[in-house]
Design brief:
The structure is a homodimer of 428-residue chains.
Chain A lengths: L4 E6 L3 H12 L1 H8 L3 E7 L15 E3 L2 H6 L5 E4 L6 H12 L3 E4 L2 H17 L4 E2 L10 H8 L5 E7 L2 H13 L3 H10 L8 H4 L2 H15 L8 E3 L7 H9 L2 E12 L2 E12 L11 E8 L3 E8 L3 H16 L27 E9 L4 H11 L4 E6 L6 E8 L4 H12 L9 E5 L3
Parallel strand pairs in A: 1-2, 1-4, 2-3, 4-5, 5-6, 8-10, 10-16
Antiparallel strand pairs in A: 7-9, 7-11, 9-10, 11-12, 13-15, 13-16, 14-15
């Protein structure tokens, strides 16, 4: 059997400790699968004193992750510190510059600096792998980059922030408003220190940008992701959507059209009986669609010690096995400059309006939508104790901009009592 | 860019033609992802004259697939003929013996000869890859062998024969008996020439044996798969199971216990609201469970031109990229000799009994089951127009053998009017 592959682990939070546990527990199994032993030689974290529930005494300690990355006895840097810049990026660059492979779970760093890091890796003949950065334990980066490599990818979708899916499904099951469930989630420790990363869709947007780059062979373009968080999703819309056969998810969609790639992460309706619609709680789901394979759905835990460490180990074992594939599936210098679609692809919409209870109000709405070329698939008016009548509309597919314009005009009309709510519907 | 990777395709049925179409349609994309062009140089099939809807004029023709495998201008044999022995095996052996890589969709060949072929591949430094042999377009072999390589796998489950799942879901949705739906499926061309391969669970059993070998690091042991087909699943059981919150699937389960590996492919109840329970029609699903990752669910088309060709191409691109991983995830000579579990793992059961409508009948059943150590979770007696009363029982987990013995005894009792039906229930 060959020489051990020597790992330096930077970051000993939940995931880092999980990786240490796997290496310690499964040495023989990992060696058999890798074709060589895996050995942790050095570790680094902020506090040496902290008890992490794992025995680190056999490993060299470095206070500085950059120094860890540069150690002669480290072949692979396992970067689990997080943060898009600062030490994580410095350590990653140090390792890659020295021709060392890097395995990272750092979605923010890759979403913002993925292209530069992929180029640095290739210049130095090093691997840069990030399965753990997207949807935790689900091997979706591998499925897309390798398993589906024979496909022209048509669409990638994903529910990739477990906290948001927990909040949305809990709102529905408990009948609680957003603010209450948000506080519950905070108390349970489900939220990032800056909760906007979760509920604002930023974290999930980072992940989508990574999958999108692989899917469409273009440079990571996080700034091109249209972001909308779940903060304004109301329990009312969740219930009405359910009435119409849909559920609301924080859904990422990346699709390629004639004039470029469209990436969005926003609250979206999906059919209640689809795999995405049936997804409960903190579980993640990634949907990959290709011209040959059709639709592939992947489901699993999107976070947590074991699942994320599992993804890290998959990458480490690939490296031990000698697998060498460009970070984004093709050489970094062949990735296209991002081309953002000017016009969003047509899709069906859910629209909620509050109409004054006066003659002709509904006719007025229908007429204005019709004039804007927006065709109504279904419309439902609800009982209303007050003076204003809630009306739900499901449109046939139309350009989102056309609907936005039409609703902006309707909002100024005297028959509309409140700001209209519009959400996109994705076939899933 | 490097030299082209030269493919020889043996077998030009649906899948073979699909592979040709992908190579012809996506040359640039495949070259970018593979790091080198992919070129078909030669093909082989039974009839040269047949119109397959693809232009084969640029490729050399071989009547004999073994000769194809031996050609100097073929680097990779793509074996899509099928059949566990005969020409498929001869061509595969010829290629591997010559140190050429083989990509195959041939589950029967691998289920019966996988160990010998893996050894032959490794002796000759060749790759043997078979993503397309299991669950069509779903990259489950890759997910298990590579993505989840850091896990001790605890259980693998799968609905891996689309025809059987079509029949079972159609029986339920149309309220039709097995024989009628079987004939429908035959008319639709869903059945193999020998339908026992499908409805007898053999085809799905082949696939399970392959996943099981990878999961547990042991030699493929198809003979160790306990097989039971769907031929005797009644519409009655489908309905009653649904009443109790379950659906019946032809489910493969492989799990490792203290005394060995247990593999079974049989009609099984799964919770109706689980991903497996929600699976409709011809779609396939593979569930992988590991100690770190928890549960990963993969869903997609299990057959057909595009999906299967997609899986073939994923393997071909891996080879073009220089990926070299042993066929079953670790060197063939380190795969353990199959050790079959003597005792099946305890599980809950669904039992349907027809009882004589006489005082004490139900008490008799409950008493006998209790005496056998079988504890009842739920029991339901149905209206009965006739003299005999259908009774459903869901047991708490018990050793399957204990239940079999208890039911055999009950079957001889005067209060039981018909042969009891018992099906296992899997948590999913």
């Amino acid at each position: 059997m060959s020489e051990p592959l020597r790992l330096g682990i930077a970051g000993l939070g939940t995931v880092g400790a999980g990786v240490v546990k796997i290496v310690q527990a499964h040495g023989d199994m990992l060696a058999a699968r890798s074709g060589r032993p895996l050995a942790i030689t050095a570790v680094s974290a902020r506090s040496r004193a902290k008890n992490r529930g794992v025995d680190l005494s056999a490993y060299a300690w470095e206070d500085d992750p950059v120094a860890l990355a540069r150690r002669d006895d480290v072949d692979v840097l396992v970067e689990l510190m997080g943060g898009s810049d600062g030490l994580a990026k410095a350590a990653t660059e140090a390792a890659l510059s020295a021709g060392k492979d890097v395995v990272t779970a750092n979605k923010a760093m890759l979403a913002l600096h993925g292209q530069a890091l992929a180029e640095l890796a290739e210049t130095n003949g090093a691997a840069l792998r990030f399965e753990a950065a997207v949807a935790g334990g689900i091997p979706c980066v591998k499925a897309l980059t390798e398993g589906l490599a024979g496909n022209r990818v048509t669409r990638v979708m994903g529910v990739m922030n477990g906290t948001c899916n927990y909040i949305l499904t809990r709102m529905e099951s408990a009948g609680l408003p957003y603010d209450d469930v948000f506080e519950e989630a905070r108390a349970l420790g489900y939220l990032e220190a800056d909760p906007t990363l979760d509920v604002g869709g930023i974290d999930a947007g980072h992940k989508l940008a990574l999958l999108s780059a692989i899917a469409f062979g273009s440079q990571v373009d996080f700034d091109g992701v249209q972001l909308q968080g779940i903060e304004r999703v109301s329990i009312d819309d969740i219930r009405r959507a359910r009435d119409m056969g849909y559920r609301i998810k924080l859904l990422g969609v990346a699709q390629s059209g004639p004039d470029g790639v469209q990436q969005s992460m926003r609250p979206t309706l999906v059919p209640a009986d689809s795999p995405l619609g049936q997804l409960e709680g903190a579980t993640n789901m990634v949907v990959l669609e290709g011209d040959a394979v059709g639709q592939i759905v992947l489901r699993g835990a999107g976070a947590g010690e074991g699942p994320t460490a599992s993804a890290v180990m998959g990458d480490v074992i690939d490296i031990a096995r000698g697998v060498s594939i460009p970070a984004f599936g093709q050489p970094a210098d062949t990735l296209a400059t991002p081309r953002r679609a000017n016009e969003a692809a047509p899709c069906a919409h859910y629209v909620r309006l509050l109409l004054r209870d006066e003659p002709g109000a509904l006719a007025h709405v229908a007429t204005r939508l019709g004039a804007a070329g927006i065709s109504i698939d279904r419309m439902r008016q609800y009982d209303h104790p007050g003076a204003d009548a809630p009306v739900l509309i499901v449109t046939h597919p139309c350009p989102p901009a056309d609907l936005t314009d039409a609703l902006a005009e309707l909002a100024t009309s005297s028959v509309v009592a409140d700001e209209p709510v519009a959400l996109q519907i994705q076939d899933a």
